Amino acid sequence: MIHQSLISITVLAAMLAVPSSKSCAANSDSASPNIILLMSDDQGWGDVGFNGNDVVKTPHLDAMASAGIRFNRFYAAAPLCSPTRGSCLTGRYPFRFGILAAHTGGMRVGEITIAEMLKKKKYATGFFGKWHVGWVKPDEVGTRGFYSPPSHHGFDEYFATTSAVPTWNPTVTPDDWDSFGGEPGGPWKGGFPYVHNGDEAKENLSGDDSRIIMDRVIPFIEANQSKPFLATVWFHAPHEPVVAGDEFKKLYPTAGNKRKNYYGCITAMDQQIGRLRTKLRELGIDKNTVVFFCSDNGPSDGLAKKGVASAGPFKGHKHTMFEGGVLVPACAEWPAVIPADTSTDVRCSTVDFLPTVASIVGDSRSGKTSRPIDGIDLMPVIRGEVKHRDRSLFLGYRRLHKGIDGKAIISGDWKLLQEAKKDGRVRLYDLAKAPFEKHDLSAEQPEQTMRLRKQLEELEASCQRSRDGADYRY
């Protein structure tokens, strides 16, 4: 049996049309709270203070985690950016909506995103930062048919890049970095990577990139403070090229240069998250706003191997199916609803954002129809009513240059994975007893191995049907 939620277009519409009694009771201000989705890029599980790092300075993220709930076992849908980003928007696995790697296609217009659902509830919708589920310029690298900007997926306003930019002076190629033949100090990928509502942005693009992004987020929130809004804010930090301004590097006087820049750009991003939280309080809308934060995958391969970036105690990094590649820092804050200083060990995922937001703003009913939604509603988890995930988690991506899939399935505490290698063998781990994946149990536990392989095959077959067009009318 495939363990997944089947929610139809019509049921999702009903979810958005009918306020739930629990939502109304929990939030006396409004049945339509503001939604803010924050995401960092390549930030490892161990690269925040609230997960025990006592060197990197993330006071505002730490305060946010303390004021709300900390997700101790939160998974990116893939150990790679683009597949995870699509899962955040759709509530579906990457193998279902078809973006399995970076730069391999745009989001299908047939997908239903959080923004499209919330527009039906008369939300203002804005996207800010790294898009990476389609090109944002129609003539970018010929686009190869991948032109698919945020405006095609329910966002009224957007300030976005197609992919990575330097975390300081995002229009300039930094020293010691080759950008498709670009010279240090020369233009970064053409010079103007940001697009604002269809036009190249050419002003206020110097200095810290997280501040540049937040300079667009704050006016959007101020303009829409009297109506419900969705602000999706996907930072570039700390994805390479990792560059920090002097004021942030000075905070780490004993660190080496790479760590000064890495920690510095994380602290710069954290400062902007603090600026956002302060603005919500100044406007008097903080209690009626739910803010989620997570990273898109584990730490960069190169930076993790050099001991700069950290997955904490977990094995692996970006581009691996081990915990270090997919387990990410995450927390949420909603003063009117989420008690302070709470945490959960329930396994949660980026595919859970859409069904959770649908539950928050509407009715949490679900039903069986043609469009599979793979995530779960996290509100029962947040309220402490659920102690275990009621379905398996499917994680995976495709190696861009080799065309080999890396995949994993987690069922209860059992995890089966296959690395994206030509001879990638199947491995089995009991995460309850050995969360750091040091001992492969596949030979010792053949029944568990067979059970999970069968579940994985069923999920892959279901996703393939979706990818082949079963879920789309066009």
UniProtKB/TrEMBL annotation:
InterPro entries cross-referenced by the UniProt entry: Alkaline_phosphatase_core_sf, Sulfatase, Sulfatase_N
EC number(s) given by UniProt: 3.1.6.1
Gene3D superfamilies: 3.30.1120.10, Alkaline Phosphatase, subunit A
Sequence ranges assigned to domain Sulfatase N-terminal in this UniProt record: 33-362
Entry superkingdom: Bacteria
Signal peptide region: 1-25
Keyword Hydrolase carried by entry: yes
Residues forming coiled coils: none
UniProt keyword annotations, A-Z: Hydrolase, Signal
GO molecular function: arylsulfatase activity
Family: Belongs to the sulfatase family.
PANTHER family associated with the record: ARYLSULFATASE FAMILY MEMBER, ENDO-4-O-SULFATASE
Name of the protein this chain belongs to: Arylsulfatase
Gene coding for it: atsA_2
